[in-house]
Each structure stands twice: as C-alpha cells, then as structure tokens.
Write a structure and sequence with these properties.
Blueprint: E1 2-5, E2 18-20, H1 23-30, E3 36-38, H2 41-49, H3 51-72, E4 76-81, E5 88-93, H4 95-104, E6 114-115, E7 120-122, E8 124-133, E9 136-146
Parallel strand pairs: 4-9
Antiparallel strand pairs: 1-2, 1-3, 5-7, 6-8, 8-9
C-alpha cells in the first residue's frame, strides 16, 4: 500500500515522503490516525504543489533539533537515589526520572525521547542517548549516586 506521510515518523520517513507499507498497518493505524493519506493522483498533485512549504517546515524542524542537540550534547546529569551497601538501588532510575532532572536544568523533552533500554538499577556513570529529532541524537552523561542521609 502506497501512502504519503502527513508528519515525520521516525521509523518510516519525513513528512511528504511517499512510502510503501503493509496494507493492515496503513488501514488500521496510519490512515485512521491521520498520519498519512493514500497516494492517489490527486494527493500526489497536492504534494507537488506543497513541496516547498513542506521542505521549509522540515528544514525548520531540523534546525530546532540540531539546536537542542547542541545544547544538551555532553551535558552531565546527576541523580541521587536511595541505595543499599552493594550499590543496588531501592527502586530504579527511569527515563521519566531523567526527563524530570533535565526539566530542572531547563531542557524540555518528552520521556519517550530518552533512549533507555531498561531502568537503571545500580549506582554508577553511563552515557544515555536522547533522540532529539528525526535522525538527530544527543548523548548525555548520567551519574547515579547514593542519596546522602541527612
């Protein structure tokens, strides 16, 4: 099934791209959600007319993503969490915790942009990937330290 994307989807392509997907995915997800339209002659003609507007919007989105990536690349984040004697955390550090800590540092992101495979359950330092835009990622340093008792 051929469709025209109405918005950028990280696993499929940019807004305005003509893509081929399985019929069920197109019928059951992309079309009802308004994320794509069928690649008919009329829609392809509309796409050709609006190509300059779409390209300008894509360039603006890319510029914003690059600016955010430049701002947060190499940023050091420290999260304090209760931990036992063996450096295992009571609980875990999730992407929501990292997102909240970044928000305190005046970096507004969605928690889904933080690419964290599994929650962090040990004290230590690690590098975390953050997906800022389509094909734009940044890397931050995360240090999980034991919470000091007052």
């Amino acid at each position: 099934m051929e469709l025209i994307l109405k918005e950028t989807i990280s696993s499929l392509g940019f807004e305005g791209d003509v893509i081929t997907v399985k019929a069920g995915f197109g019928r059951n997800y992309l079309l009802p959600q308004g994320k794509a339209v069928a690649a008919t002659e009329t829609n392809l003609a509309d796409l050709a007319e609006n190509k300059a507007v779409i390209e300008a919007r894509r360039a603006e989105d890319q510029k914003k993503a690059d600016a955010i990536a430049k701002k947060i690349n190499g940023l050091e984040v420290v999260i304090e969490q209760l931990a036992g004697d063996d450096d295992r955390l009571f609980g875990s550090v999730t992407n929501a915790d990292i997102c909240a800590k970044l928000a305190e540092m005046d970096v507004k992101l969605d928690k889904r942009q933080i690419l964290l495979g599994d929650p962090i359950k040990k004290v230590g330092e690690m590098k975390i990937q953050i997906k800022v835009g389509f094909n734009v990622t940044a890397e931050i340093s995360l240090a999980v330290v034991p919470l000091k008792a007052n």
